[in-house]
Amino acid sequence: MNWQEVCEHPNLKNLPFKIELNEDGKIIMSPVKLYHSGLQGEIEFILRQLLSAGRALPECAIKTSKGTKVADVAWVSSILWEKIKQAIEAPVAPEICIEVISTSNTQKEMNEKKSLYFEAGAIEVWFCNQNGAMQFFNENHELIHSIIAPEFPLKINL
């Protein structure tokens, strides 16, 4: 399958799962807990407050070299948004791609997603653990705080 087929398939609409595609076009589904959704919502809200020259996107589908990956939250500048907003999946990664790490995620999986987002054009990748602690990365190393949104908190409190 490709991402457009997944989006248009009547049996896959309104599933309570996060859906992604692997490099073979196979669907990968992960259940999401309420706390995970709460962290996503709070991150999105804070991004909207801090960065007015763009959009915060929940569940952002991004085309990568290993299939479609879905960032839990992303932030895209107004300039890039105008270029990609009509696409089925982002052909270029938004400037910030954020993953809320679930207990089912492995370090290997998160490192791979981070690499894929950078390969697709992300400038920063952020991780939020289940306790709300944030980690910020550029392509070369971990950052003390985000360069794009330096006021973003180091911990999300729910």
Q: Looking at the structure, what is the overall shape?
A: globular
Instruction: Average the pLDDT over all residues and give the rounded result.
Output: 87
Instruction: Work out the number of β strands.
Output: 8
Task: Tell me the span between the first and last alpha carbons.
Answer: 37 Å
- Give the assembly state of these chains: single chain
Q: What would you give as the CATH superfamily?
A: tt1808, chain A
The name of the CATH topology is tt1808, chain A
Tell me which CATH architecture applies here: Alpha-Beta Complex
SS strand fraction: 25-35%
Q: What is the number of domains?
A: 1
Helix content: 25-40%
Order of helices and strands: HEEHEEHEHEEE
Largest beta-sheet characterization = 6 strands, mixed
In angstroms, what is the radius of gyration?
A: 15 Å
Strand order of the largest sheet: 3-4-5-6-7-8
The number of helical segments is: 4
Write down the CATH class: Alpha Beta
Query: Based on helices, strands and strand pairing, what is the structural class?
Result: alpha+beta
